Amino acid sequence: MQKSKGITIQRHIIEQERLFPQATGDFTGLLWDLSIAAKIISREVNKAGLAEILGLTGGVNIHGEAVKKLDVYANERICKSMEHGGHLCIMASEENEDVVPVPDEFPKGKYVLMFDPLDGSSNIDANVSVGTIFSIYRRKTTGKEATVDDCLRKGTEQVAAGYIVYGSSTMMVYTTGHGVYGFTLDPSIGEFLLSHEKIKIPPKGKIYSINEGNTYVWDEGTRRYVSYLKENDSLTGRPYSLRYIGSLVADFHRNLLYGGIFLYPADYKDPGKPKPKLRLLYEANPLAFIVEQAGGMASTGRERIMDIQATELHQKVPLVIGSKEDVLTYEKFFSQKGK
Ligand code: P6P
């Protein structure tokens, strides 16, 4: 990790804004509001064990308020932090069935925010790292009100994407299409400070991340690929190491920095009806934008994640993401299936 030069995320966002001569500051304000929501969620995540806002408590806190599950809290926090700034015309959350409109009393902006407020939250009771994932698009409809059509997009239309990982430290990683930057929260001053400049994922890794408990429902290509990773290689000797936390943001973040491949293939229990798990709009697209900006790749096994035209808000896709050479090798195995 590079030594922080004391550059705050606010200063970095403003410097990034200078790359867009036509920038109006709207986008800067949006990213800034998001970083504030991240600090608030980080505070709650880090005291969850003490404040009894873990998992399914369903109890009441000392103020007699209904205790919310942490992911419900994070969802409401982001909506409340983002709706009044005047930067957004609509939002969509992995936690909400339908789109989240900006309330009438607030000004509307030209951006669309889509997010997974707290991915991996089922792990939080065990103090496992969790994360918030976000994507930002420009509005495309021209009517009076933004609609769901502003959310059903291709990943290539993203203007920014990022995640916050609440782990041993809280980090915010984002891209606006000009490289990937990481900021580490310094709780003593409440600022995100630049700690990782122009992150690049190694072209080939030695880590694979997959839930091997699902081996029995994988397609033949995935099964053969994972076996290949475990064979002893006469040249390189040690096979790949399996690292799987079961929290997408944490697994992705480690592989982004160290190199490696994360796979969540579809469930082929019913070969005629493959069932993917991860969501295109809230998980796959934002991480795909980041990994491509870092020199990596994100695929379903047969097509680029960011080329997929979303047709439903909660559409799911198989996700294979990480070091370019590893994803390309997987695609070869996946295409050969039963051969
Ligand atoms: P499994 C968490 O529930 C999540 O959505 C991702 O964060 C994680 O990568 C995946 O599901 C884990 O799924 O089936 O291996 O428990």
From TrEMBL:
What this protein needs as a cofactor is: Mg(2+)
What UniProt keywords apply to this chain's record, in alphabetical order? Carbohydrate metabolism, Cytoplasm, Hydrolase, Magnesium, Metal-binding
Q: What main location does UniProt list?
A: cytoplasm
Quick one: which residues bind substrate? 119-122, 211, 244, 277
UniProt-annotated binding residues for Mg(2+) 2 = 116, 119, 283
The GO annotation for biological process reads:
fructose 1,6-bisphosphate metabolic process; fructose 6-phosphate metabolic process; fructose metabolic process; gluconeogenesis; sucrose biosynthetic process
* Domain Fructose-1-6-bisphosphatase class I N-terminal residue range list: 7-197
**UniProt-listed InterPro entries:** FBPase_C_dom (IPR044015), FBPase_class-1 (IPR000146), FBPase_N (IPR033391), FBPtase (IPR028343)
From the UniProt record, list the reaction(s) this protein catalyses. Answer: beta-D-fructose 1,6-bisphosphate + H2O = beta-D-fructose 6-phosphate + phosphate
Entry's SUPFAM superfamilies? Carbohydrate phosphatase
Q: Does the keyword Hydrolase apply?
A: yes
Signal peptide from the UniProt entry: none
Provide GO CC annotations from the record.
Answer: cytosol
Binding-site residues for Mg(2+) 1, renumbered to this chain: 94, 116, 118
Q: Which residues form the Fructose-1-6-bisphosphatase class 1 C-terminal domain?
A: 201-333
Is Metal-binding among the key words of this record? yes
Write the Enzyme Commission number(s) for this entry.
3.1.3.11
Family under the similarity heading? Belongs to the FBPase class 1 family.
Known partners and oligomeric status: Homotetramer.
Q: What's the name of the protein? A: Fructose-1,6-bisphosphatase class 1
The organism's taxonomic lineage, starting at the top: Bacteria, Pseudomonadati, Planctomycetota, Candidatus Brocadiia, Candidatus Brocadiales
